[in-house]
Design brief:
Organism: Micromonospora vulcania
Strand order of the largest sheet: 3-2-1-11-12-13
Strand content: 35-45%
Pfam families: Metallophos, PQQ_2
InterPro entries: Calcineurin-like_PHP, Metallo-depent_PP-like, PQQ_b-propeller_rpt, PQQ_rpt_dom, Quinoprotein_ADH-like_sf, TAT_signal, WD40/YVTN_repeat-like_dom_sf
Mean pLDDT: 93
Protein name: PQQ-binding-like beta-propeller repeat protein
Largest sheet: 6 strands, mixed
Helix content: under 10%
Radius of gyration: 26 Å
Structural class: mainly beta
Number of helices: 8
Number of strands: 54
Domain Calcineurin-like phosphoesterase: 53-230
Low-confidence stretches: 1-42
């Protein structure tokens, strides 16, 4: 979870700005590909250099959308004519980051701009990226990075997450950012550009409050962002956040120019330049940002904020310095705030002497970890937000122990007997022995970054690596038994099966399915897939089944890898549409004596194993959580959880719906673990609940933390073990 916020005296940003002049050497952080910032400047541009830079965002180039290419050429030609000091691209450069799309984009860049454009990736560069960001870095350089231009220090920040849409800053990136900001000389204003917007009603990054707390301590003046395809200006927490319109929707660019106000003080004037088809330009002023003095909302930064649980309510209390806000409000951050915007009402605080206070109703909230936001509004309409973490007591499951790994635990946990294994994006694989309600670490090793779960079988842990590896570790010691290199990153879950009595390890490495000998890693056969595969293949001893980003589910001969049949989930000739709507992240399920079940973001299908013919289908996006088999009332059932919480129990032989319900929270990848006729469901915002598979009733809710959870939990040693994007691994007593 994010570092708990202090309820003590708040440290003023205005005080800290004077201490921001420490100069450090070359910057680097474990797991972060970064370039060192240029030499610190005095905050004044060099004589004779351009004072303006351009910005674009969300260009989404794709060969199947030629109008966007024409727009991009027009926009870049207009920018080149103004001779900018730099061009900042806020991400979603292409539709899916494929080499063909990248090459198309690069063909639109005029030679005179090529060495002046700086990039940050968007979710479309990483969501479906078979190269695990390698293609992005080859084409567009390091992320993050920083440099100086026009007398300001510019940071290209990258909170994107591989295989996911929302953002996550994480400890390593925030450490890099703080080291970078510390080296900026006093009186040098700072500009940050990134893809995901932060703060206010945006919930694209689960740890955005940690990011805002960090930048509040430095002279950050502007944060530029894209993603939302809409222009908006938010003056908050000492800075101005400006979200940009999408270039793909209309030909335009933004221009930021350093000028002086009527008193000779520096300012940054941001305009939007539209390029209508009729010719000419139309310029609109978007914002004027002072580059000296206190930033927007800074005068109403609270000196203290205290939030505590009081029964079924949160008591909120705040005090301020010399400036009295015109309004002070508070809200509980919404449980459904995930990868989008949620506008929830605020409760006004009342002033009593030197303090402001209120009580927020928490009676409808589950016990566990929650966050409360306090907003102080200044007379000019700007505001200062402060977020506090608070624990709400109550009956039901409780966290018994907690530990942290380096990086995010994005893939599911694995278990065998009393052993639990987790792998992290920081390249850490750790095993715990679960005994008497506690976890004792058995071993920990370093591998490549892990984005899907390791698999335990036959006293071996098989680890998929984004560094083009599959690694076999001894379950008792963590010692490496073997490791094989693959042509592409392994972003899928391995599957151990038996064919003719012999073990076979199935691994989807990018666009290739491999059948390996689990004892030594030697290859039995390989088969080409038409697209990215990040889910989990299945095998019945005769056929291997796997979904891919070519909008097809594939069946192969389990002995030879010969292609047997394909099933199309989306009829299209557009490779990008095929990827987005294909079963690329499908965890294929085999129903005993029944069909093979595959899913996409559109539907789930039961297919005849021998032919691939459709036996039944259920609409809805159940791919990410993944179907789960269970025995309910003595018969086999299939649990389908859709990404926004709609949940169904169906007959896996016919597809008939037995019941359906709404969980009330989103579920992505984290899915459910079945325990008899109960399914423990972990939501994207770390909500955990017990789902009665007979009735569809959800109870025993608890909120485990504040981070996004994409990792399916496991049951081991009488506990449920769950993990999140902050690298937190928790053992939960279910009660």
């Amino acid at each position: 979870m994010p570092t708990p916020h202090s309820n003590d005296q708040a440290v003023s940003r205005r005080f800290l700005l004077g201490a921001a002049g420490v100069t450090l050497g070359t910057l680097a952080a474990p797991g972060i590909l970064a370039t060192a910032a240029t030499a610190a400047t005095s905050g004044k541009p060099r004589p004779g250099t351009p004072l303006g830079f351009a910005l674009v965002s969300d260009t989404h180039l794709n060969p199947t959308a030629p109008a966007r290419t024409d727009t991009m050429r027009t926009v870049f030609r207009a920018i080149a004519d103004r001779d900018p000091a730099a061009v900042l691209h806020c991400g979603d450069i292409t539709d899916s980051g494929s080499p063909a799309q990248i090459a198309l984009y690069q063909s639109t860049v005029p030679a005179e701009l090529a060495d002046r454009i700086h990039y940050t990736p968007g979710n479309h560069e990483v969501r479906w990226d078979v190269s695990a960001k390698e293609e992005y870095h080859r084409a567009f350089g390091a992320s993050p990075q920083s440099f100086d231009v026009c007398g300001v220090h510019v940071v290209a920040l990258d909170p994107t997450m591989l295989l996911q849409e929302p953002g996550h800053f994480g400890g390593a990136l925030l450490d890099w950012l703080e080291k970078d900001l510390r080296r900026v000389r006093k009186n040098t204003p700072i500009v940050i550009f990134q893809h995901h917007p932060v703060g206010d009603a945006w919930y694209y990054a689960d740890d955005q409050d940690r990011f805002l707390e960090l930048v509040e301590r430095y002279d950050v003046r502007v944060v530029f962002a894209g993603h939302v395809h809409a222009e908006a200006v938010r003056p908050m927490n000492g800075l101005v956040e400006i979200t940009l319109k999408a270039v793909k929707d209309s030909p335009h660019y933004y221009w930021a120019e350093r000028t002086s106000d009527e008193h000779g003080k520096p300012q940054l004037v941001v305009t939007r330049v539209d390029l209508p088809a009729t010719g000419g330009t139309t310029t609109t002023t978007v914002a004027t940002v002072p580059l000296t003095g206190s930033g927007p909302g800074a005068d109403v930064e609270p000196t203290t904020v205290h939030v505590s649980a009081a029964g079924a309510a949160f008591a909120v209390r705040a005090s301020f310095g010399r400036t009295t806000p015109v309004a002070v409000r508070a809200q509980v951050l919404p449980e459904t705030g995930f990868s989008g915007s949620v506008n929830t009402p605020y409760t006004e605080l009342t002033r009593t002497g030197a303090h402001w206070q209120t009580s927020l109703d928490a009676s409808a909230l589950p016990p566990g970890t929650h966050q409360v936001r306090l907003r102080a509004v200044d007379a000019d309409g700007s505001w200062w937000d402060s977020v506090r973490t608070v624990q709400l007591a109550g009956p039901g499951p409780r966290v018994a122990w907690e530990t942290a790994l380096d990086g995010a635990v994005q893939g599911a946990l694995s278990t065998a007997g009393d052993l639990v294994v987790a792998g992290s994006t920081g390249g850490v694989v750790t095993a715990w022995a679960m005994r008497h309600g506690r976890a004792k670490q058995r071993w920990t090793v370093r591998t490549g970054p892990v984005y899907r779960e390791p698999v335990i079988a036959d006293s071996t842990v098989f680890v998929p690596g984004a560094d083009h590896t599959v690694t076999a570790l001894d379950t008792a010691t963590g010692r490496r038994r073997w490791q094989v290199r693959t042509a592409e990153p392994v972003l899928s879950t391995p599957s151990l099966t038996r064919v003719d009595g012999a073990g076979v390890l199935l691994v989807a490495a990018g666009t290739t399915l491999l059948a390996l000998d689990p004892t030594n890693g030697r290859e039995h056969w390989r088969a080409a897939l038409g697209g990215l595969a990040t889910g989990r293949p299945a095998c019945d001893g005769d056929r291997v089944y796997v979904g891919a980003g070519d909008a097809r589910a594939h069946a192969f001969d389990a002995r030879t890898g010969t292609a047997l049949w394909t099933f199309t989930t989306r009829a299209t000739t557009d490779p990008n549409t095929a990827l987005l709507y294909g079963p690329w992240d499908d965890r294929t399920v085999l129903v005993p004596n029944g069909p093979v079940v595959v899913s996409s973001v559109s539907a789930t299908w039961g297919l005849d194993r021998a032919t691939g013919n459709t036996l039944w289908s259920v609409s809805g996006s159940s791919m990410y959580a993944g179907p789960r088999l269970a025995t309910v009332g003595g018969s086999t059932a299939l649990l389908l959880i859709q990404e926004r919480g709609a949940t169904l129990l169906v007959d896996p032989m016919s597809g008939a719906i037995r019941w359906q319900t709404q969980l009330g929270f989103p579920v992505f990848n984290s899915g459910a673990v079945v325990d008899g006729e109960t399914a423990w469901v972990l939501g994207a915002n770390s909500q955990l609940g017990a789902l009665d598979l007979n009735t569809g009733r959800l109870d025993r809710l608890v909120k485990l933390g504040t981070g996004y959870s994409f990792s399916t939990p496991v049951l081991a040693g009488g506990q449920l073990v769950a993990a999140d994007q902050n690298g937190r691994v928790r053992g939960v007593d279910l009660g």
